[in-house]
Amino acid sequence: MPIAFLIYVVLCLLVAFIARRSKLGSLRTLVLAFLLTPLVAFIYILLFAALDDKSKTYTHEPVER
Questions:
Q1: Are the C-beta atoms of residues 13 and 40 closer than 8 Å to each other?
Q2: Secondary structure E strands in the chain
Q3: pTM of the model
Q4: In whole angstroms, what is the distance from residue 62 CA to residue 56 CA?
């Protein structure tokens, strides 16, 4: 039984690590994974919590029209 709990905790931490750059954040995802299941939290992250896209850079240059 303790090995199953350890696996559950590791999966929760893995999902939180994956979601560290999402808008939901790693701590909220970790709580969500503990309350629901890591699989449900992972699916939620994939579907609803968009990752921050660092390829979009915003500059202060004027827009040409």
A1: no
A2: none
A3: 0.69
A4: 16
